[in-house]
Records
---
Amino acid sequence: MNHTEPKVSATIDLLADGKHHGHLIIPHSRNDSGWGAVHLPIVSIRNGAGQTMLLTGGNHGDEYEGPIALMKLARTLEAGGIKGQVIIIPALNYPAVLNGSRLSPIDGVNMNRAFPGRRDGSVSLMIAHFVHEKILPLADVVLDIHSGGKTMMFSPFACYHRIPDAEVMERAKQAMLAFGAPISLELVELDAEGMLDTEVEEMGKIFVGCEIGGGGTSTPETVLITEIGVRNLLAHFEIIDEKPISCEDRGLPPTRLMHMPDSDCYLISNDAGIYETLIDLDESVKKGDAVGQVHFLEKLERQPVVYCAGRDGTLIGRTHKTLVGIGDFLGMIATEM
Ligand SMILES: [Zn+2]
């Protein structure tokens, strides 16, 4: 037995020229299928020399702009129309996407905390391991498409992270700007360990992320932002020969370059109750402004607890759910760079 190679296999050759639809086969022996497996869809489109881009959606199973935009791209992009390679995985956590849940129903794992994975781990860990061992080494750039899912809502942004390698960081920043989202954000993560983002960056490759909308649905606008962003990124890396479409080209204000100077940008609940949003996304706030308040249904005499902005800026993310608990995300404030 080879105990170093992934237990996951691909039905297509990721090094072959041409367009190939196939699956990653993840062994999944279970009560209702003794010798069963999960078949996770993947498309590889390759045409000679050039940059290789990995496009992933459905890292969380209740975020839909990525899967929709990438399924459409997988149907329409042909090898003759590109230079280099595009690897498309519309549903990275495929069992979670089929279940409409953030986490996998098989093992309860958050795919974006599962990297670099384990060859003999649960289904999510085996997927992460294969991506880490067999796909990331091929990629020059990775775009992982997220939105808020059922519990969060974001003002659409593309993002990059501050990383030690200034040259790679600058290239990631330029790629993020090329995406052309309404907001371009230098993002501070609350919990970066185990993320696909972190693994890509530690390999010295370019990572671009995005949070396009949320609420466990999509809108025509959030899907359009995603589709334009994907094509803009393919054009930026000269994989397709197209003129990028900027916000201004669409008659919108130019992308707002923003950042999150410290953890004061996040509002986290210290209470369990019913959350009332007092200001909406894209509104400006001053430090100390009330952003929302938690009400207590079981103690009607009790005043609600007001949550205030920790700094001046713009509210670009908020909870979508109303029934909040201690430790839940309530909001996120970014400032112009
Ligand atoms: Zn997500």
---
Amino acid sequence: MAKHNIKVCMGSSCFARGNLENLNFLENYIKENNLDAEIELVGGLCQDKCSTGPNIYIDDVLHSEMNEEKLKEILQTALV
Ligand code: FES
């Protein structure tokens, strides 16, 4: 299986809007489910889409207004 890439926008707007929590959640989720080999988690710079933040790119697809609930759903469906 190809490795999935999750890029969490760490620009100040997304960071303040919830990506700090989202990043913590992702780190824990990856650890708890032993997904280190399947998911590459990286931080990104502001993508000039702050108004729809917090933004997270999953396999280069932009997901806006992200929260733990939405992340969980994507992780459990799209990435398995
Ligand atoms: S801070 Fe994330 S798009 Fe600008």
---
Amino acid sequence: MIKILFIGDIFGKPGRKVISGLIPQIRKDEQIDIVIANGENLAGGLGITPKTAKQMFDIGIDVFTSGNHLWDKKEIIKILPTEKRILRPANYPPTVPGNDFYIFETSKNIKIAIINFLGRIFTISVDCPFRTADKYLEKIRSETDIVFIDFHAEATAEKMAFAWHLDGKVSAIVGTHTHIQTADERILPQGTAYITDVGMTGSHDSVIGIRKQDALARFINRIPARFTPAKKNLKLNAVLITIDEGTAKAKSIERLSIPFE
Ligand SMILES: [Fe+2]
Ligand SMILES: [Fe+2]
């Protein structure tokens, strides 16, 4: 059995604090084989930097998925061509910097493919995630049947449809991007673990990670305002998924929302 811990968008320094405080122990207690996290908000809530990524790799995150905010901090562009553990959504144009999929090998030599896609509703126009996913699966099959997907998308219907499209073809599909954890985790009939959104790791005394006063000013005044990550009511939002390595089917999915401090 393979145990995957997937962590929802880590938001700024408060989010990184939760990771440092909780992940080493959870990793040990639960005997996790791989820790995957969405890192698009790792640095100041917008983007990811080489320094913040390294800090998280050292603590025990194995692979980062991302989303629309991956390129917000310019320093990351330099390392994306060589740092294969930071993924960009695979349905962006192929000329965009960032790795499109990653094959991780566990300590028991089991290969897990990790891919990230961006949804197209209320986001930006990118290649069709459905057809792009089909193409990638053909390519990855020769390496492994165990496939984990982070679908970074806004609309719940698009996420659910994507999961039905791939049920039985991949081991797990988790949603990210809204920063709000949904309570619909389940194993679909053909053996794919699914949740619409894993949520956000950081301050929950906030508007999706941002200080309430900053977000309110933007909504009420309708002009751009500076965003600062909020600091209180810290929580880890994650899912723990087990997969049968013989069949590549999911056996369980458990939703985690753990307060920190
Ligand atoms: Fe995010
Ligand atoms: Fe996002």
---
Amino acid sequence: MKVPREVGKHTRNKIHAENDPYLPPKGKGLAGVAICKGCTAVYQNKKWFLDVKLYEKKKTLKGITWVTCPACKKTKENVPNGVVTLKGDFLKQHKQEIMNLIHNEDARSKKYNPLKRIMKINETGGEIEILTTEGRMAQRIGSILFKAYSGEVVYKKHENTKFMRVEWKR
Ligand SMILES: [Zn+2]
């Protein structure tokens, strides 16, 4: 089992990336102010912000560009960069508590970087699958579950991609 060093805790990530076709290449972000019509995230100074007050302030301005942000685009096209699978009897017994922890992490992450978030949660049988927009988000979820409940966690990262698969079992 390879456990990578925890990276990018709560820093605001650069919004361009070589390996992520959903993000603009370096130096080629949107010009001016844009708002995502999906999640109301506001783009300004080359960063995305998920902030209701900022949205209310900006949405009435003239010259706003309405767009679909990279995270909403990934969600729409169902192209996750991270997948976390949860399973085990402990999960079944403590599901609500565990999901609350995960939802809190999602809320916290979005506040720092709206593009780093949970896309979708699937449940089949006793298993829960969480799709995330970024590999690091999947890694983070694995890490907080392991910290809170121990169990077994496996991280599978593909070389040269940002895709990360995480499995947690207890
Ligand atoms: Zn959006």
